[in-house]
Amino acid sequence: MASNLGADDKNNIRNFRDFLLLYNKLTESCFSRCVSNFNYRQLTGDEETCIEHCSNKYIKVNHRLMAIFMDIQGKKQQTAIEQINKMTEDQQQMARNTDTNSAPVINSTEQTEEDTRTRTENIQASDENLIFT
After folding, report:
1. What is the CB neighbour count within 10 angstroms for residue 35?
2. Degrees, nearest 5: CA angle 61-72-62
3. Does pTM top 0.85 for this prediction?
4. Would you say 34 and 50 are in contact if contact means Cβ atoms under 8 Å apart?
5. How far is CA 40 from the centre of its chain?
6. CA-CA distance, 114 to 120, in Å (whole number)?
7. pLDDT digits (tens, 9 = 90+) for 48-101
8. H/E run at residue 94
9. Straight-line distance from the first to the last Cα atom of the chain, in angstroms, rounded to the nearest whole number
10. Has residue 26 got a pLDDT over 70?
């Protein structure tokens, strides 16, 4: 069944699960702090006030943490984007440098003529050495 769920459904389930975890932590924390008298079915005035303050404080802290998390996450993403852009620029610069430093393309006819001249000069030099020795 879980494999048939789309990405949105999986995100919704994860968000709902996170909400339930947060709600359970809030309930457990505030209950253990504020409720002390089990003699009555209803909460006392002090217990109600304590639970209100506790839950409000918990929610405010959670909001603050989420804001800080989003700020830090945004900065991390911006840094990652800048690093990727720098790496791309460096790679492009290296490619440009490689293109400008590479040997010029020589026409095959020019190369053959140069090889022929070099061989002729070497043969002539060899012949001169033979003549003078």
Report:
1. 14
2. 15
3. no
4. yes
5. 55
6. 10
7. 999 999 999 999 998 999 999 999 999 999 999 999 999 999 888 888 888 766
8. helix 45-101
9. 96
10. yes
